[in-house]
Amino acid sequence: MNIFAENLFGEVPKVSSGNLVVEGELDTRHGPILYLEDVSVSFDGFKALNHMSLYIDAGELRCMIGPNGAGKTTLMDVITGKTRPDTGTVFFGQTIDLLQIDEPAIAQAGICRKFQKPSVFDALTVFENLELALKADKRTWQTLFYRLNGEQRDRIDQIIETIGLTACNHQRAGILSHGQKQWLEIGMLLMQEPKVMLVDEPIAGMTHQEIERTAELLLSLQGQRSIVVVEHDMEFVRSIASKVTVLHEGSVLTEGTMDEVQNDPRVIQVYLGG
Amino acid sequence: MKLIGLGTDKIGTTVLILLASVSFIIPLCNLVSPADSPLHFSAYTVSVLGKYLTFALLGLSLDLVWGYCGILALGQGAFFALGGYAMGMYLMRQIGTRGVYGDPLLPDFMVFLNWKELPWYWLGFDNFWFALLMVVLVPGVLAFVFGWLAFRSRVTGVYLSIITQALTYALLLAFFRNEMGFGGNNGLTDFKELLGFNIQSEALRALLLMISGVTLIAVFILCRWLVNTKLGRVVTAIRDQESRVRFLGYRVEMFKLWIFVFSAMIAGIAGALYVPQVGIINPSEFSPLNSLEIVIWVAIGGRGTLYGAIIGAVLVNYSKTVLTGLMPEIWLFTLGAVFVLVTVFLPDGLVGLMRRRLQESHS
Ligand SMILES: Nc1ncnc2c1ncn2[C@@H]1O[C@H](COP(=O)(O)OP(=O)(O)OP(=O)(O)O)[C@@H](O)[C@H]1O
Ligand SMILES: [Mg+2]
User: Fold this and answer.
1) C-beta A245 within 6 A of ligand 1
2) Of chain B's two ends, which shows fewer C-beta atoms within 10 Å, N or C?
3) Which domain holds residue B244?
4) Which three-class secondary structure state does DSSP give residue A205?
5) What are the pLDDT digits (tens) for B13-47?
6) Which ligand is nearest to the CA of A66?
7) Residues B107, B95: contact at Cβ < 8 Å?
């Protein structure tokens, strides 16, 4: 009935399973949500990424491990537009070519990131940090006249509770501990309601308890969002990962379950042999 | 009060009250008391105070871009001068036949250059409202074009500061040239009247002081509101971690451009208020040194607080008036020395010091 009525007025029928492919809109009906193929990045001749290919599925929780300098952070830099690769293709779904758009456009498309070095805004309060991250119209005039509505306030409060910072709500982020800053940044990630979350070393500086809560949080998000976690802590990785990718010298060394990769002789060689 | 966050802020409130008193009590005293009464302020005092207030407005405009957005713009004086020239052009056209050559249309310097007609860019400046529009539009458009080019190509830090200095220096050279049609070296001066008032008259001077004060208060409150909006917080975030803001989906260059243009417009208004009170505008206002001085006012007052810029601008310029009266040759050295001392010992400026005192007295 609805479709019929809309057709009467000459409008395009909106079918929930959406058959139209719109250029620049996320389309993940076939294949992975993130798609990197043959990506290379070099810094002054040094290959930080070397013909790397990687596919992340919608709703997947993927862990990336690898020794220092393997190219894990560089990989996130490429996906978020911070670093442009020398060669290769990077797609978000089937339709969005990430090499054609810049950092804010990538963020607005739904790929958000937590940095290795926690980077929250020290001069702003916890609440304000989250408010800035909140998914919204982020153009200048719209930002100038932006008012939080009750629902959004509740959402921020809810996230503050999730990240356990209720007591520091109106304190400047600058005075938080390292672990709390990590949590705040995770909270900022959640505020953006991303489709893909790139989480670079989330648990550095956290207590045991905090680490457990982080694992719970990430596991609870699995399925709704695609999450890529980079972490050195093997115990943590084991507690959350179903699939682990091992990077080494800018390429994928192997992929598999935690047990598979840990027993892979090449992985053992890389970690022990240096 | 709550809206602009003044309730809890003693220094800000004090500055506002002081500003309001200066801009209303002094003109009122002059209006009601006879010239020989002790309540009567001299014409000199009135216009010097008015001048300080326009400098305070200029300092405020720099604090927005530098203190809040972290853009160390060393060409703020150029926007001030452009606003001043726009007002000067209106005042020139008001002279009419009262000039030395008595030409009803052409200002004296054009007659002197043997020009036969008014250049197209002088058209419309006989209209006060058009001139007022240009006071904000010309600096705004220049800031827009300049900022668009600079911020889009992500020029930041020292490089940006240097090209803003280059901008004001280029304008200095251009305005020195007679062929530009802005009076060359001498600039625009010998104004006769503003909106029908004799420009020398006490009443107009008092009025200009009052208008400068009211404008400063209004802009101060507007800026207070601005920095407390979400845009203000984005701008602060850009100051502290520019690239991080991009990854939250904000177009950093557009925010910088917005604040830069807004601040250039304020500087233009300051220039327009300055010119009728000092009676002249010439290319020296574009001097790169002037723009550096503005940075010093804000640094001494305390950046990123808005009222710090006001306090700094007024104090430094008052000292300048006093010192250049006593020993003109030592002024620049003193200013330099104070700047160095403040940077080293008072990174938050005088306001930082006052805040600490206030906190101590509370605890
Ligand atoms: N901007 C840069 N300029 C030069 N070299 C760089 C740059 N960024 C990264 N590299 C180099 O590229 C290599 C990969 O760095 P990357 O940060 O991606 O490693 P990583 O896997 O994240 O390591 P870690 O576990 O220590 O975080 C390193 O050798 C690093 O020194
Ligand atoms: Mg890294």
Assistant:
1) no
2) C
3) 2-362
4) coil
5) 999 999 999 999 998 888 788 878 888 888 888 98
6) 1
7) yes
